[in-house]
Amino acid sequence: MKDIKTAPELSIILPCRNEEKALPFCLSTIKEVIKKNNLNAEVIVSDSSIDSSPEIAKKNGVILVKHNKEGYGRAYIEAFKVAKGKYIIMADADGTYDFKEIPKFLNELKKGADLVIGNRFAGKMQKEAMPWSHKYLGNPVLSAILRLFFKAKVKDVHCGMRAITRGALDKLNLKTTGMEFASEMIMKAVKKEMKIKEIPINYNKRQGKSKLKAFSDGWRHLRFMLLYSPLFLFFIPGVFLFLFGLVSMILFYLGSIKIAGIQFFYHPMFLSTMLVITGYQLMIFALFSKSYAFNHLGEEDKTIEKICKYVTLEKASIIGIALAIIGTVIFFIILLKWIKNGFGALQEIKNSIIALTLIITGIQTIFSAFMLSILSIKEE
Q1: Phi, psi at 160, each rounded to 5°
Q2: CATH 3.90.550.10 residue window(s) in the chain
Q3: Most buried pick, 99, 130, 163, 313, via CB within 10 A?
Q4: What is 10-227's CATH topology?
Q5: What is the arrangement of strands in the sheet containing 10-16, beginning at the earlier edge strand?
Q6: pLDDT for 153-206, tens place per residue?
Q7: Residues 230, 186 contacting (CB under 8 angstroms)
């Protein structure tokens, strides 16, 4: 590698944890690519190994970032701190990726792409390079979910070979430390409306033992996507539960219903109340999540901006108080009937359920309005 005094144009980062079998081959190939294409590049090995990987990196004269912190995302976050390139190439150090394809990624960045991602399914994949559970189940399903949730036009969201400009990287403010780092990068790039390019690449059988944990790593990806998408986690289930509970409550209130030959009276209204209250709270949780992301994570959301502008603490509190008062009045009327009846038996179960639902929903509205106001306070 040439001794270049000027800042490198390209930073090639390899996350490494116990890759002594594959690392020499990877570094050798990268050096050949740099020399052949006359690239102004630096190579960074971000290491948390307990084998001889650090020594191999030193012998090859590359930049070694020894942090000893586990996690795929952590390795990259530590390496980003020292990377000086205008463009950044990321790829695993296990021999699965063909580093001769680096110029393809670099060219796409220079053409204007902010993020370039490899598509292993569109290129040549060696036999047994990817377990069947990942190839036909895990990766396709999680990729489909991410496309559904975030409208990302990416078919291989977990591909480990990708490239990004330094400017785009700084805007993403990546935080996750595990395997979900790969999904976070795409999700945030989509939300920032960055230009994402996917290109076909080859994929080889890895050298050495795999560190992937199919179920736990898959769950981390899914969990992060759900947390980052309150519409699917909270709002849609909340709307379904609320509407189903409300409609069923009205039907049972107006009269008894016969289903499959079974006569139902007022008892199912207790279930309806639970659905209404739970669904309403889930919708509020969605509002909390979006408000926090808008006010504290720098996300742009015109819907939340309008809600915060028109649905003030005072307006929401008035609505909540009104609901609670209506419920209390119904209870008071029932009490008067009970007293008038000489404290005898009453058939006011349905009205009592309605009153209970209104009071709880009103209290939820009042205190949720206060919580929303707290989340709406922007940090300086």
Answers
A1: -85, -10
A2: 10-227
A3: 163
A4: Spore Coat Polysaccharide Biosynthesis Protein SpsA; Chain A (3.90.550)
A5: 63-66, 41-47, 10-16, 87-90, 162-165, 115-119, 196-200
A6: 899 988 989 999 999 999 998 888 888 898 889 989 998 889 999 999 999 988
A7: no
